[in-house]
Amino acid sequence: MTYFVGFGPFGEHTVNASWVAVQELKKLGLGSEVDLHVYEVPVEYQTVQSLVPSLWKQYHPLLVVHVGVSGMATTVTLEKCGRNHGYKGLDNSSFCPDSQCCIVGGPDCIDSVIDMESVCKRVTASGLGVAVSVSKDAGRYLCDFTYYTSLYLSHGRSAFIHVPPLGKPYSGEDLGRALKAIVQEMLELLDQAEEKIHCQQHFH
């Protein structure tokens, strides 16, 4: 079970490429095995703080993949980790957390359990026609804030993908295809990890 989160409009992004890409992915689907739930998240710290935990409770997903737009991105970017501190930018309702952090007392940084380098290599080798890269800094705004919150709740069973704005250079359809390929690789890696754990338990 997976669900996807794409962000709503903010700043100059009146049409958010991440939400367009997620809707394209929904059209394509991930095969009959995967139950795909899609949510659009307002660009607001307090909404993220209540919505993300409620989605985890409701669905107990195998993996959560968040998708956000980055005006600086020119590739589809896989984020390796979320960071707890440094949230000074005001959100769509002109709010930022007093503590400037996601989870008071939480670790500074949480890595995804998914090996993003491996996902990147596999998707690149598949000849998708969309450039994919890996990053260690999700930007200390709502994307990073959401990712850290999700990683904290899921013990690392989350991923974050940044997409470039539409037409710079990819269309919504291109981004949807890229998301499908990326998430299929992520699920494959999770599957392999589960099997390995299962085998180890079996032999002990």
UniProtKB/TrEMBL annotation:
EC numbers on record: 3.4.19.3
SUPFAM superfamilies (alphabetical): Pyrrolidone carboxyl peptidase (pyroglutamate aminopeptidase)
Keywords for this protein: Cytoplasm, Hydrolase, Protease, Thiol protease
Catalytic reaction equation(s): Release of an N-terminal pyroglutamyl group from a polypeptide, the second amino acid generally not being Pro
Enzyme class label: hydrolase
Compartment annotation: Cytoplasm
Domain of life: Eukaryota
Active site per database record: E79, C143
Principal subcellular localization: cytoplasm
An example Gene Ontology CC term for this record: cytosol
Pfam families for the chain: Peptidase_C15 (PF01470)
GO BP annotations, alphabetical order: proteolysis
Alphabetized GO MF terms: pyroglutamyl-peptidase activity
Quaternary data: Monomer.
Protein family according to the UniProt entry: Belongs to the peptidase C15 family.
Role this protein plays: Removes 5-oxoproline from various penultimate amino acid residues except L-proline.
Record PANTHER family: PROTEASE FAMILY C15 PYROGLUTAMYL-PEPTIDASE I-RELATED (PTHR23402), PYROGLUTAMYL-PEPTIDASE I (PTHR23402:SF1)
Protein name (database record): Pyroglutamyl-peptidase I
Naturally occurring in which organism (per UniProt): Lates calcarifer
Gene (name only): PGPEP1
